[in-house]
Design a protein that fits this description.
It contains 3 helices and no strands. It is mainly alpha-helical.
Length: 88
């Protein structure tokens, strides 16, 4: 449960920062300042995404790998590989 809270907090922080970025763009603030805030959003999203992936691997993925459904195991591995490609 603690991991879930961390994930949720990370996404909420990213949302808050993104709202600030949008306001900065609307207010035509200095581009470098906007870029810096945007990078903060990206960092928060990457961190939350990593925690979510870790949760998935340590729960859903691990449970399927302990089972006997070979088709589902292959599907889960493909899902992880797809997410890995998308995250680059």
């Amino acid at each position: 449960m603690e991991r879930d809270k961390e994930i949720l907090v990370g996404f909420k922080k990213a949302k808050s920062h993104l709202e600030k970025v949008l306001k900065m763009v609307e207010d035509k603030e200095y581009c470098i300042d906007i870029l810096q805030q945007n990078l903060a959003v990206v960092g928060l999203l990457k961190s939350a995404n990593q925690k979510l992936l870790e949760r998935h691997i340590n729960s859903c993925f691990t449970n399927v790998m302990k089972g006997t459904n070979e088709k589902r195991k292959k599907e889960m591995i493909e899902e992880i590989l797809t997410i890995n490609k998308l995250s680059k």
